[in-house]
Amino acid sequence: MTSVLPPFVQAASGSLGAASANALTYPLDLITTRIQATEKDTSIRKQIHTYGLSSLYDGIGADTSATLLSSFLYYYVYSFLRALVVRGNGKSKAAMLSLPQELAIGYLSGIASRSITTPLNLVTVRLQTARVSDDSSPQGGTSRFTAVCKQILREEGLRGFWKGFSSNFVLSLNPAVTLYLFQQYRSVMLKGKERASPPPGHSFVGGALANSIAVIMLYPLLLAKTVVQASRRSNSTNSSSQGPSIRSSLQGIYTTGGFFALYRGLGAQLFKGILRQGTAMMVKQRIEQLVVQAYLRQRALRRVQHKG
User: Fold this and answer.
1) Do residues 106 and 75 lie in contact, with contact meaning Cβ atoms separated by under 8 Å?
2) Can you say how many angstroms the Cα of residue 72 is from the centroid of all Cα atoms in its chain?
3) Distance between CA 210 and CA 278 in Å, rounded?
4) What is the DSSP letter of 140?
5) Which of 14, 139, 160, 306 has the lowest tally of Cβ within 10 angstroms?
6) What is the torsional sign of CA 154, 149, 276, 197?
7) Is the dihedral of CA 42, 36, 130, 117 positive or negative?
């Protein structure tokens, strides 16, 4: 991500790319979440047979909103911080930074975006798992979204909307590592103009590979976060009853199923990630190319008018 475009353009292109990829892969995302949260054997065909075609899009409104907001904030903060570091080092805007610098910028950007979008992510997980987790939330539309929000507020208070947020202090490395590996792919596999503006095929492959490596590195924490967010506080009269924490979830998964249980649903996660991240990078790069082309055409037109 060494684009020299303004932060707003990078943020807008990144969020549109992420939203497009989210819409394309949403049924896979829903199935993956249900596998992670409930340990139940499920498939797209089974979901359609049991709950109908519309069930594959439970929570898509909340998830798309979270994706747009999270991606916009991430890319905006990232490009802004990167520009500050590059300017301070006296380098060109497209210059490669050191590994610690790139990871630090990506990490801070991830924390900033996730701190704001965690409530929407939590509601999305609840909506995605309601049909298979004995959740009594009403089904259908906006009323269901509102009901889940009220349920969280009633059971756990305002802080409940940031349930599982502690995992983000590690999981925020995921987008940072993904972007760094994507840059390395560009620097190794591409040359000249293609390195500055990768073709769609290379954007897809580079984004997919980078995301897959990052996901494998941090997957147990991603799994634990989903388990925590899908859980509800016990309705017991004991007011001190607490839901699972990230640590207790990891311990419970390991104790019950061993080491490989920490990677349940990894295959679906990787397949979804390949399509999502690859598509997101491809769309983002294409939008940026169109912006640059439009700018160059406008500048050429102004020169012609000035000469005239």
Assistant:
1) no
2) 11
3) 9
4) S
5) 306
6) negative
7) negative
The pLDDT profile of the chain, 308 residues, written as one tens digit per residue, is: 456 678 888 889 989 999 999 988 998 888 888 888 876 666 778 878 888 888 888 889 899 999 999 999 999 999 899 888 888 877 776 677 788 888 899 899 999 999 999 999 999 999 888 876 655 444 444 578 889 999 899 988 999 999 888 888 888 888 888 888 988 898 889 887 787 778 888 888 888 899 899 999 999 999 999 999 888 765 544 444 567 888 999 999 999 999 999 999 899 899 988 888 888 888 888 888 888 888 888 888 888 777 75
The residue length of the chain stands at 308
Helix axes 99-129, 7-38, angle to 10 degrees: 50
- Residue 74 near residue 178 (C-beta atoms within 8 A): no
